[in-house]
From TrEMBL:
Keyword Cell membrane: yes
A Pfam family hit: SecG
Organism lineage: Bacteria, Pseudomonadati, Bacteroidota, Flavobacteriia, Flavobacteriales
Keyword Cell membrane: yes
Organism annotation: Aequorivita antarctica
Gene Ontology CC annotation, any one: plasma membrane
Record's signal peptide: none
Name of the molecule in the record: Protein-export membrane protein SecG
Length: 110
């Protein structure tokens, strides 16, 4: 299995986790954080606020995904040696030039 394939699998896992974390949140302040004891106070038993955890996990997963995408780009560019045909004159096939013979002229004076 190539390095790029490993990065691709990790990107898919992080994307799935990111979708789950975002879907748990509610844009109006509800969601998972409101079901654990109300509006904006501290949680019972000293547990951190759920909304802070979801916010931090969203940013962490997004940062991890960005880093994985950038690193995978390095490995995909290293594995394939694609060269531009624009700058490589030997890679461009020569266009055959066909010359049409000049039409035979007949001299009307003959």
């Amino acid at each position: 299995m190539s390095t790029f394939t490993i990065f691709l699998i990790l990107i898919m896992i992080v994307a799935f986790l990111l979708v789950i974390v975002i879907m748990v949140q509610n844009p109006k302040g509800g969601g998972l954080s409101s079901s654990f004891g109300g509006g904006g106070g501290a949680q019972i038993g000293g547990v951190q606020k759920t909304s802070d955890f979801l916010d931090k996990s969203t940013w962490t997963l997004a940062t991890i995904m960005l880093a994985l995408i950038l690193f995978s780009n390095v490995f995909i560019m290293g594995s394939n040696t694609v060269q531009s045909k624009t700058f490589d004159e030997s890679a461009v096939p020569a266009v055959p030039t066909t010359q049409t013979p000049a039409p035979a002229t007949t001299d009307p004076a003959e």
